[in-house]
Amino acid sequence: MIRVLLVDDQPLIRTGLRTDFADAPVALLAAEASCWRLEPGAAWHGFDGLSEGHCLLDPVKVTLTCPGVTADGRTGPWGVPARVLTAYLATRGIVVEKTDSYSTLVLFSMGITKGKWGTLMDFKAPYDEDAPLARVLPALVEGHPRHYRGATLREPCGRMHRHLTDGAFVQALDEAFRHPPRPVHPPRYCYQRLVRGGTERVRLADAAHRTAAAMVTVTPPGIPVLMPGESLGEPDGPLLRYLTALESFDRAFPGFGGEAHGVVTDPDTGDHLVECLRPDA
Prior knowledge:
There is one protein chain. With 281 residues, the chain is α+β, with helices and mostly antiparallel strands. The protein folds into three domains: 1-59, no CATH class; 61-166, Aspartate Aminotransferase, domain 1 (Alpha-Beta Complex); 167-277, Ornithine Decarboxylase, Chain A, domain 4 (Alpha-Beta Complex). Helix content is 31%, strand content 16%. It has eleven helices and 13 strands. Helix 9 (169-178) runs antiparallel to helix 11 (238-252). The longest helix has 15 residues, at 238-252. The model is unreliable at 1-12 (pLDDT under 50).
């Protein structure tokens, strides 16, 4: 919501009156920076500890939030995981920049036409209809018939939402960033070992207490969750708990894999592998 007084669609003075952001005139949004600032304490964005005027939204970067989780991380009784929306948009020629559990980031540019961004709204119709998945995402069903043949669009959405909720997926990501790994070696040491063949790829199931040789970055938020030279920690620690949750999701829902730079999937077993220092090198 924006605090303004409008006269003939032009901003005149600031008052306590509010208008919905979606209904604000384009001239106002283009001229008034306060329309894009994150107000401290506002419930909709979920960011704690903000200072007044500290954060400004980028109008070119549009985040689409799907049902299923609130801004403060609470899950609802039903949801539409964003990976399904991303897969749908890909079939319509729209490339999503980043996909989270329940949000997608789309970059708008001069090349995005009204007709193209209007496609973002098309997903609701087949979801409300509960259309056959073979019609909505035919390549997915063809590539993974054992998992999706005969399913409708709502079915994988419901199964994904239950999987993410039961595994406390969103909370696991938050814990992984709140408890940084323990540093063992400086990154330059790991790089020297890497170029000299002193590293190996290790399954997550065997990675407890091993030292990472390469960075692991999950997107979003696109921030390293593990740096070279840091320990992967306890088997049930926050880092391995989150990475294992990613692996579990990818096994359960092939074709909807996430983005984790520095994590490699074994094509034969589906195991997730991370680059670690070889203890004997």
